[in-house]
Amino acid sequence: NEVSFRLGEILFDEEDYGEALARYEAVATSGDETLGPKAVYKTAWINYKLDDFDGAVRNFILLLDSSESKLNASESALAIREDSMNNMVLSLSRSAAPEKFLEGIMEKTYAPDVLFRLGNLFSGEARHEKSLAAFRLFMANFGEHPRAPFAFEGAAKSLVALQQLDRNVVRRPDEGHAA
């Protein structure tokens, strides 16, 4: 397993993603509790680099779900979990249909984190409609969560930005000029 994983690392670094993927998938399905999660993580990254954002999301969800039950995870496992969370949000933001994944994670302990980060990411990218949708979904499902006031604030900012865009679109180019 370690040899396959290390070969996957070399191939990944050389951007030979097809061969690297084969090596990582072999390790991921081997049952190796140490290298398996790392191989799934690298598989998700290959999916992302190949613009297979849905595949990336599926693999990041697999990692997050597998770490849910490990309360006393090692420091490296916790780092992979945090990276997986961030990268899943990034992959969701690039997915053509993120809602199909969001519906499936609403019962997970990490769902509020994902929605909150997704709303903030969309907001930072000036994708205000999507930001508003993510924050609304957060508030509809996690209204008692400690981040709910911040989600409300994010939704309000997105709504104001959308209204400002609407005003700018409605305004004619010759407005305000003397005739």
Question: How would you describe this structure to a colleague?
Answer:
It is a single chain. This protein has about 180 residues and is mainly alpha-helical. Helices cover about 75% and strands about 0% of the residues. It has nine helices and no strands. The chain has helices spanning about 1-15, 15-30, 35-50, 55-70, 75-95, 100-105, 110-125, 130-140, 150-170. The model has no long low-confidence stretch (mean pLDDT about 90).
SSE layout and pairing:
Layout: H1 2-13, H2 17-28, H3 35-49, H4 53-68, H5 75-94, H6 99-105, H7 111-124, H8 128-141, H9 148-170
Q: What is the terminal separation in angstroms?
A: 77 Å
Number of helices: 9
Order of helices and strands: HHHHHHHHH
Radius of gyration, rounded? 20 Å
SSE class:
mainly alpha
The major beta sheet can be summarized as:
none
List the uncertain runs.
none
Shape: elongated
Features:
about 180 residues; 9 helices
Task: Give a short summary of the structure.
The chain has 179 residues and is an all-alpha fold. Helix content is 74%, strand content 0%.
